[in-house]
Amino acid sequence: MLLRFVDGRPVSAVTIDFLNACSTQIAKQGSTALVLIWDTASWLKSQAVRTWIRSHNQTVKETGQGVRILPCLLPSKSPWLNPIEPRWVHGKRNVSEADRILSADELEARVCAYYGCPCQK
């Protein structure tokens, strides 16, 4: 699982940066495809993100190098179809505290520890 924390809102440019980083990392592992199961958040289905994915996939096809990105959008208002939802619920319960707000660094460290992924800065 790859997690990334960002300052501000997760807009299209942040999503594109994340996809670029993911595809580079996955290509190094020898994989040829990245299948994304996404909800219908506006920044995930934006024109900018769709255009970038299309261009990226065309480059991979033409050069024969890299990772194809295959986004699969879930229907809206259907959390039961999203396999990550139960993990988010359990993670939230194990990471947060009811009596205080965690700092950004504390939250990032706890989330990475809970999900067993390295913190990336």
Q: What does this protein look like?
A:
This protein has 121 residues and is mostly helical. The protein folds into two domains: 1-75, no CATH class; 84-121, no CATH class. The chain contains four helices and two strands, in the order H-E-H-E-H-H. It has a two-stranded parallel sheet. Strand 1 (33-38), helix 2 and strand 2 (68-73) form a beta-alpha-beta unit. It starts with 11 loop residues before the first helix and ends in a 6-residue tail after the last helix.
Element layout with pairings:
Blueprint: H1 12-28, E1 33-38, H2 47-63, E2 68-73, H3 85-95, H4 104-115
Parallel strand pairs: 1-2
Spatial gap, N to C terminus: 16 Å
Mean pLDDT level: 84
Structural class: mainly alpha
Task: Supply Rg.
Answer: 16 Å
Number of helices: 4
Outline the low-pLDDT stretches.
none
User: SSE order, as H and E?
Assistant: HEHEHH
Strands side by side in the biggest sheet: 1-2
Q: Quickly count the domains.
A: 2
Approximate strand percentage:
5-15%
| Strand segment tally | 2
List keywords for this structure.
121 residues; mainly alpha; 2 domains; two-stranded parallel sheet; 4 helices; 2 strands; 10% strand; globular
Summarize the structure.
With 121 residues, the protein is mainly alpha-helical.
